[in-house]
Amino acid sequence: MMIESWNPPLLHDYSKLSRLQSNRDCSNDGVLMMEELELPMIDLNGLKSGDEREMIRCENAIAKASSEWGFFQVVNHGVSLELLRKMRKEQMKLFKAPFEMKATCGLLNNSYRWGNSTATCPKQFNWSEAFHIPLTKISEAASYGEFTTLREVMVEYATSMQDLAKSLASVLVRKLDHKDSEIGEICNENSCFLRLNHYPSCQISQEIFGLVPHTDSDFLTILHQDEVGGLQLMKDSKWVAIKPNQNALIVNIGDLFQAWSNDVYKSVEHKVMANGKKERFSIAYFLCPSYDSIIGSCKEPSIYKKFTFGEYRYHIQQDVKLIGHKVGLSRFLQ
Questions:
Q1: How far apart, in whole angstroms, are the C-alpha atoms of residue 87 and residue 153?
Q2: Low-confidence residues of the chain, pLDDT below 70?
Q3: 115-154: b or e for each residue (b if 16 or more CB lie within 10 Å)?
Q4: Within 13 Å and on the Cβ side, how many CA atoms surround 37?
């Protein structure tokens, strides 16, 4: 199979892993789909309607979805649809650059990655490429090389996502009877990230992960995806596919919010399956605290020990190196 010059050598890397491990040992679990669902849809106009009853209804819907699903989608979110289209256009232009340029030219804080360098067998491999950029670096003109039009759009995009993420996080904090200022004190643009994802089409198998099963390690994530499906999440102990909606943004709870809420809000395992015919694009915004921020539960008795975000990230990195996946919050159970 020929790989276009702009795509990374995913087939080569995957084939190498396949030779090291038998397919029987490393088959992907749970790839057969039982059903396709739509995430709870929340109209955020309710938060700014001026009608107290409508605002409460909207806030309750956000909290309920965060508790029961760990995922929901939002419309009338305040992020311009034109901005989303511009960002997608610039993203596609970036990923169509030659692989050698993406891999060696230090683009976007030298944040380009593909596959999974720590994978030891096929079930740990990501059929994808991505730029994972700290928000502190996106305004640096030197990071963009010849992609000068990307900078202005990305700065605007990050600002819009930051505002939306803080608004949603504030709602979730208030619903647990805490001051919404608490989230702003530990999360700001100095500790958050944008991740630009590209999932090339994969014709060798429909059972390959575009992104392996995982939970997010932040407070919450906002995802903008295209019309190509592939996102799946764990619901009621089975994998379900999520119908894509280009005009809605997907929000999901991360590990830190689950720990802070004392398991009221759920950080749910999810994955992306590769597509045999179509490539897929998405952009994720991650709301994170500073590395020295202490994460403690909002009420007692606490399910989890206190830990810093830096500690959590360190243990995740060590787990991935040693066993191929993260242990997650279970390490910090009381």
A1: 6
A2: 1-4, 21-34
A3: bbeebebbbbbbbbbbbbbbbeebeeeebbeebeebbebb
A4: 18
Supply the pTM of this predicted model. Answer: 0.94
Per-residue confidence (pLDDT) for residue 34, from 0 to 100: 53
pLDDT of the residue at 65: 98
Long-range CB contacts (< 8 A, 24+ apart) of 22-27? 23/122, 25/121, 26/121, 26/122, 26/123, 26/124, 27/123, 27/207
pLDDT at residue number 40: 97
Residue pair 254/47 in contact (Cβ under 8 Å)? The answer is: no
Residue 24: count of CB within 10 angstroms of its CB: 6
Give me 263's structure tokens: 């398991």
Cα 178 off chain centre by = 26
Give the 3-state secondary structure percentages of the chain, helix then strand then coil, rounded to 5: 40, 20, 40
Q: In a 10 Å sphere around its CB, with 0-12 CB exposed, 13-18 middle and 19+ buried, how is residue 308 labelled?
A: middle
Residue 24's pLDDT is what? 42
Cis upstream peptide for 301 (omega within 30°): yes
User: Cβ neighbours of residue 225 under 8 Å, at least 6 residues apart?
Assistant: 231, 244, 246, 250, 280, 281, 282
Q: Are 79 and 164 in contact (CB under 8 A)?
A: yes
